[in-house]
Structure formats: structure tokens, C-alpha cells
Write the C-alpha cells for this entry.
Amino acid sequence: MNDPTPISNKCSFLCLVLICFGLIVPWSHAKVPQNQADRLLPGGDLTPSGAVRAGNAEGTIPEWTGGLPLKVVPVGDRHDNPFKDDKPLFTITADNHGAYTDKLTDGMKAMFRKYPDTFRMHVYPTRRSFSMPEKLYAETYRNATEVILVNHDNYSMRNESGGYPTGGYPFPIPQHGAEVVLNQSMRWISDGEIYYANQAVVETDGSYVVNVQYREFARFKSNLDFPSSDTPITTRAIQRVEAPPRLAGQLTLSVASMDPLNEPNRAWTYNPGQRRVRRAPEYSYDAPTADGLMTRDQTDGFNGALDRYDWRIVGRKEMFIGYNGYVFQEDQAVVREEDIIQAGHINQDLARYELHRVWVVEATVKPSERHLYPKRVLYIDEDSWLNAASDIYDNQGQLWRVQDSAITNLYTCLTMTTTFQANYDLASGRYAIEGLDNKYPPRDTTFYQPAEYWTPQRLRTMGIR
């Protein structure tokens, strides 16, 4: 796989200065030179976010021309599907998937083998719908010449002043696998949201129970009005479980950091039976969730500290990935939970796949570390830097779990998100799906609360109401 982005591993003058003052350890990847950063400007060969601007030679991937424009959606309404009139170009099945093997993840190939009668992929015209606020394009351009990746133990980021990046993508022209993943972690996700991140564990017979999760969320590093470079805190979130009854009332406050070595991720929980708030002992890495089908760092394909893995860019490649999946956020009157969930895998007739370029990144556990997943391969969309799919391997090097999702532009605030994420366990035939909000109010992206709102005391207040 050939990638047009040149690779450089020379340490910048900034790195040397910071090393002398003891601010970072003597290991880093350099910011890119000005002539490389200028590729992000209008007329350059890269988009403002670092993707290849041009389409492919075959014309099956179009040129990026700005993506979807801003269109305000009133709070309480759902996003209309701007591509609802598109028809599938073709369908990939177990019988013909060999003809498309170079554009399928290993996980998708495994799903065709395991479910030959029901698993299929409807491929639609490619719509490069990615867009984000203009200010963040400017900050991404600035980051290209200022932000460096430091410290191979925990993959910290610093800008020219020694502070932390405040907005935009930190590494639009990545030179290291960790930089690609950090772009996903730092992506624009609105200033704040209220939404339902409901999850279901689906048994082999198709039966399931929905874990209803109400969330309040604030993204501090991409806040358009109040960015700060003196703290590595990126997000704060409160989650309240509303169902099933045995879990209802549980509350969790989580605080995420881009520099977990110096500012660890933290979490607190409220137990309605005890009516007490306690610090959560381990709320990251491979702590199990979804009845053991997922790990805490598996949301969004990868979420959290990077320090247990070595990260390697395999290359940039054209692949079929879930995209513009507006159907999965439709109201229950249009698409029901039971229309989405079925035995073995989601209803693939609802899923939309498109041909996009992705960064392929391989993560292998460091010899000194341990993780339930010794190896992971992530497929990250070049336009949005969102993880579209993941392949997860066991201790014997065998493909174990497969993640699939649908990248979508919430154009009311130009936020790219996934409208569902399915996590398939090939061994058991069970799976977990996240993003089931069809029965519940759609995302409110106008919500924002300052740092003093996000405290353990807030959990106590919510818990006694």
C-alpha cells in the first residue's frame, strides 16, 4: 500500500529545547515543515483535515469539495438523510466477496465466512460528507507546524509553548501510528451534548436487553470559545443508567486526559443502593464492559490511553466502510430497535457501505505490558479521522472480534460521529451494539456546562432526585 505522505523522523529544534529544560523525554516525532503544512491550504493536494483532496483514478472516490454545509436542526428533531435517494451500486455476498477482497477488512471477510446466508454489504456511491467549523481548519493548519508527539511510553502531545493542543486535529500529516489515533481522540465533537448511548448485548438466538444510558458530555479541547493549553483535560461526561431495573440509577462521572501519565483519567460512581459516591478503581484499558464482549478502550474503535501498545502505520488504503448511516438515527416510528437487531449481526439491509480511503494502523502490546487484546488493526477514515472498523486478535494470533460502524455528519454543528457501533465476537456468535437511541430523544448538541459542573458532588445531587 503506497501512501503519498512523506515520512520524517528528525527531531525539531523545539524538541531539543524542551529536552534541555526537562519538559519531555528525548524521543519525539517532529512537526512538519511549512511547505508540508501548506498542502492543507486551498489549492494544496490535501484537505484542511489532511485527507487526499483528489478522487481516485477510477472515479469511484470523488474529490472532496467541502462536505456537507451547516444546516441547523432544531433541538428534538432528527437529521434528515441528505442521500436518501441513493441506490446501491452493487451488493457483496459470501458468494462474490472474493472479487473485492483487497477492499475488505479481515473482519468483514470473517463475517462472510461465519454467516454466509445472511451477511451482506450494500455498496453505495461514495459521498465525502465530512466537514467541520472553519476555525478548526485554521487550528489544524497551525497544529501541523507546532504540535509534536513526545514520549514513547505514553505518547504525549505538546505545542511550541510546551502547552497542550487546544483544537483541530493535532497531526493532519501523521508520521507515527499513535498520531493517527490521537487525531481521532482530539476530533471535533461539538462543545457539549446530551444524548442516549444505549447498548444491547445480543445472544445467539437474537434475544437482547437494552442498557439505557443517558449521557451529558462536554468537550473542552475543541471548545470554540474557551480553549486552554494549560490543561490536558479533553472531555468530561456523566452517565446515568435508566434500564434495566437492576442497574437503574447508577451514575458515573468520567474525566479524560490526553496526557494520562501526568494527568490520569479519573472516574467516580454513584450507587443508588448505598447512596454514596466513590472513586472508580479502574475505568480504562481492558476493563470489561457489555457483558465481557467489549473493553473500556474499545468504544469508537479505540478510546483512552495509548501507552500499552506500539503503534505502526501500515499505510493508506481504499476500503469499503460504513458511511452516511443516517438510517440508524431514525425515529422509532421509521426504524425500530427490533428492525436493527437480529441473530448473529445487525440487519445488513439497513447498513450503507461506501469506498473511502482509510489509514490502516496496527497496534501490538508492548513486551512490558498486558492487555486482553494483544493485537488490534484499526481502519481510520482519512477525511474525519474516525475509526470505521477494527480487527481484534487473541493470544494465538487468531482473529477474535470484529468492530463495524457507520460514520455520519451531524451537520447541525458539523460533527462527525458514528450512528452505531457493532462489536462481534466470532467465537461465541454474540455481539454488542452501541448507539440505539431510536426510542429516545435525539442528540442535543447545544448543551454545554463549565468545568465546575463536572464534580462528584454533581453525581450526589443527581442521585438523590
User: Anything to note?
Assistant: The longest strand covers residues 309-322.
